[in-house]
Prior knowledge:
The protein is an alpha/beta fold. It is built from eight helices and 14 strands.
Amino acid sequence: MPRIRCLACDLDGTLLTSSNTIPDNVRTAIDDARDLGIRIILASGRTDAFTRSFARQIGSTAPVVSLNGALVKDADGYVLAETPLPRGVVDIAEEIGTQRTGGGLSWSLFNSDGILSLDELPVIPRYLRSDMDEIVRVQDLRHYYDYALLLCAGGSYRAIQQLSLALARKFGRRIKRAMYQSGSGKDLYYLEVGASSVNKSVGLKKAIESIGIDRKETAAIGDYSNDLEMCKFAGVSAAMRNGFKDLKHISDYITKADNDEGGVAEFLRLIVDSRDR
């Protein structure tokens, strides 16, 4: 175990239980780590405001990595780094939305200020609209096209598929697309679009640079495929017992406890014990 000065920690399925709480044993382990000067960087696919709310809960003053690395802010909310979508992505969504076959398509933009939408209640997946205070209703989204970090569209399968294919034809590997069905059981699908250059390791690199910590002094823990690059980047890594198989294959350690049992505490104790020796 190298000398660790910071832990990058995923939220869902890792730090948080299935009911979005932090187990008591994890809170205790974080306090013990903080006493040794170990910083905790939360890195999530969620929005900055949601991720930051848990950073406050654990008393972290480290930067926050959100939107899977597209946005990094310091403890005071100052933007350290952001990776916008390629120019023209949102124009295609607007074009598809005005076509008859794209009827019912709506989209919201995510930037460093929150969620920008034309609608009072935007059609976006629940995990991305976790805090209604983040939603900024605007009269014209075009002013924000060049500053969008993520586009999330919602609509029928036909409309979403049409948008996805149009984006793929124009931008190819410059963007990442994730299409999935709503849990409502209705003909409602979502498409999330981000820059292909973005992942949690990109955000983590910016975060540790801002606080003067080397990657070899950084540990990372997660549970899903969006944690792969972050765990490869860190000096030492762990996968949760409930984690994604491919993540377990590349991680140095697999916790014996899952997220509901506080697996993060297990990894933190290893880090703290190695510092005490």
